[in-house]
Design goal:
Elements (H helix, E strand, L loop, with lengths): L10 H17 L2 H8 L8 H14 L17 H13 L7 H14 L2 H13 L4 E4 L15 E5 L2 E9 L9 E7 L10 E7 L5 E7 L5 E14 L3 E2 L5 H14 L4 H15 L14 H29 L8 H31 L12 H17 L9 H12 L3
Parallel strand pairs: 1-4
Antiparallel strand pairs: 2-3, 3-7, 4-5, 5-8, 6-7
Helix pairs in contact: 1-4, 4-8, 4-9, 5-6, 5-7, 7-10, 8-9, 8-10, 9-10, 10-11, 10-12
Bound molecules: flavin-adenine dinucleotide.
Length: 406
């Protein structure tokens, strides 16, 4: 575990932080930390994320961003931030966010009592694993173009269409989906939000390989897929507003700075190693050291912005369009940090891929080896940050139109 970057906490928050540290020291097993460090993709695979989910659920700390009446922890914004920061510093795996952090707030805000009572406990326990069916071919940046149709009949709705770039659909048993219920009105007004059980005939998942060769995203085909009327969220035609609420949470509802700062701290430690054993290390390069320090400062600035956002949400307000600022900055920093890691490890990583001997018989330090192996695929996969949840160009447009009011 990395030494914690000291954060200015005092009083009750310090007691809370120590309790979190104690819990992580005793419950976050080394194989989970190692799995997290070795993850090349944007999302952690269920093999580790679900184990960590269960551990947190048993402790009662899983729903830390949910309202208290739905099982939330009731933590203050600062406590939520401390928790995320300590988890990042301890190399905790990412959680399955699609259910926990994207769908759950939608159900709390727009769901019926039946939907809340049925779905929320299953998201928490991990019984349901969710994926997100928004994007389609020709409907990514502009979701108003989507063509998946939902036709009402006596038993509910019948869905037909195809979704694209669906993260972890190959693990999921449920998909929350946007589909067109009315083709005669303004495109945005004809869209509805559905909860779809994927364990039925007519749902087909086809893998898409990422640039790094990983299987993280998919195409999902829906052919005469049945959705009971009770699994429509909100009103018919309310899907556009619900999607905007969800996307605000996707962009700014989670904190990105803790993980970025933890990765920067790790990179600093690893850049100080002497891979060739000749007394030189990457951190001695003044240009590298300056780039790393600049990224650290920018991540600290993001941290302050994220804390401000959390305080706003603690007052019951939505993340708001300023979540686009968070997404844009985080996306840029993530790619820069991962690029810098390739500077340190790229060559070593390639050698490992080719299974060649490294630096003599003993090879490099174990920490160095693992980071080297993952640096290049992680850098390639991190390019997706500029695309998913709305591309950088779309975030800039939102900021201009709704934050700067240009
Ligand atoms: C790794 C990954 C995971 C994803 N996971 C999911 C998922 O789980 N569920 C899901 O529903 N979707 C997912 N997506 C899809 C993602 O949300 C879309 O790819 C994204 O919204 C962009 O849409 P598009 O790919 O159709 O590109 P397009 O909308 O065709 O855009 C192509 C280019 O044109 C630019 N552009 C488009 N419109 C404008 C405009 N008005 N002004 C300026 N520039 C513009 C874009 O910025 C982009 O550079 C994922 C994508 C990736 C890469």
């Amino acid at each position: 575990m990395l030494a914690s970057v000291e954060f200015d906490v005092s009083g009750e928050d310090r007691v809370f932080r120590d309790a979190v540290r104690e819990f992580l020291a005793t419950h976050l097993r080394e194989e989970l930390r190692a799995g997290s460090r070795a993850t090349p993709t944007v999302f952690a695979e269920p093999e580790i994320s679900r184990v960590w989910q269960t551990i947190l659920h048993e402790k009662g700390w899983l729903a830390y961003n949910w309202p208290k009446e739905f099982g939330g922890t009731g933590w203050s914004p600062m406590q939520r931030y401390i928790f995320e920061k300590e988890c990042a510093l301890a190399d905790a795996p990412g959680l399955p966010v699609l259910g926990l952090k994207l769908l759950a707030p939608v159900l709390c805000e727009y769901g019926t009592a039946e939907q809340q009572q049925y779905y929320l406990p299953k998201i928490l326990s991990g019984e349901h694993y969710w994926c997100q069916g928004f994007s389609e071919s020709g409907a990514g940046s502009d979701l108003a173009n989507l063509r998946t149709s939902a036709v009402k009949d006596s038993a509910g709705y019948v869905l037909n269409g195809a979704k694209l770039w669906t993260t972890h659909a190959h693990f999921a048993d449920h998909i929350f989906c946007l589909a067109r219920t009315d083709g005669a009105v303004k495109p945005q007004r004809g869209i509805s939000f559905f909860l779809v059980d994927m364990r039925q005939p007519g749902v087909r998942v086809r893998p898409i390989r990422t640039l790094a060769g990983d299987h993280e995203v998919n195409e999902v085909f829906l052919e005469n897929v049945r959705v009971p009327a009770g699994d429509l969220v909100g009103e018919e035609g309310e899907g556009w507003s619900i999607a905007k609420f969800l996307l605000e949470n996707e962009r700014g509802g989670s904190c990105h700075a803790p993980r970025l700062l933890a990765d920067i701290a790790r990179l600093r430690a690893e850049a100080a190693l002497e891979p060739a054993g000749d007394g030189t290390s990457v951190i001695d390069d003044p240009l590298f050291a300056a780039r790393l320090s600049r990224l650290e400062l920018e991540a600290q600035a993001l941290e302050i912005t994220e804390l401000r956002n959390l305080e706003q949400m603690g007052l019951g307000q939505r993340p708001g369009p300023q979540s686009s600022i968070v997404k844009l900055v985080a996306s840029d920093l993530r790619r820069q940090v991962d690029a810098l890691a390739v500077n340190v490890f790229g060559y070593v990583g390639m050698q490992l891929e080719l299974q060649r001997p490294l630096y003599g018989a003993d090879g490099p330090a174990p920490l160095h080896t693992k980071s080297a192996q993952v640096a290049t695929p992680r850098y390639l996969n991190s390019q997706a940050w500029a695309i998913f949840g709305g591309s950088d160009e779309i975030q800039r447009t939102i900021i201009a139109k709704t934050v700067l009011l240009i």
